[in-house]
Write a structure and sequence with these properties.
By secondary structure, the chain is α+β, with helices and mostly antiparallel strands. It is built from 3 helices and 2 strands, in the order H-H-E-E-H. The chain has a two-stranded antiparallel ribbon. The protein starts with a helix and ends in a 19-residue tail after the last helix.
C-alpha cells in the first residue's frame, strides 16, 4: 500500500566487479609511469629480480613541498624579560657576610 511513498521495499544488491590481477598490475604500472614521468628531478627506480620488488628513491625535497622555515616558538614571559646570555642583576640590598 505504501510502496508509492517509499519506493521499492527491497533494493537490488550492487554488483561489484573485481578486476583481475593482470588488470590491477597494468593499472598500477600505468599510474606509476604517469607519476614518474611528471617528476622534474627524476627518481631512481630499482628492480630487484631476486625478490620481485620495485623500489623508488625520491629526492629529499620534492618541487611541491614547502621550503619555508618553521615558525619560531612563541616566547613566554620569563624568557622575554631576560635575553639569553645575560645574567640577571644581583640584589644589592641583601645583607652581606662580613669580610676580613
Amino acid at each position: 500500500m505504501f510502496k508509492f511513498l517509499f519506493g521499492k521495499s527491497a533494493k537490488e544488491p550492487e554488483v561489484i566487479i573485481r578486476e583481475t590481477q593482470r588488470e590491477t598490475v597494468e593499472r598500477a604500472l600505468k599510474e606509476m609511469n604517469d607519476i614518474l614521468t611528471a617528476l622534474s628531478p627524476r627518481a631512481a627506480v630499482t628492480v630487484d629480480m631476486q625478490h620481485g620488488t620495485v623500489s623508488i628513491q625520491l629526492p629529499e625535497q620534492m618541487p611541491d613541498e614547502a621550503k619555508a622555515l618553521p615558525a619560531p616558538a612563541p616566547a613566554s614571559d620569563d624568557t622575554a624579560q631576560i635575553p639569553q646570555g645575560d645574567t640577571p642583576a644581583l640584589d644589592t640590598d641583601a645583607p652581606r657576610a662580613p669580610t676580613q
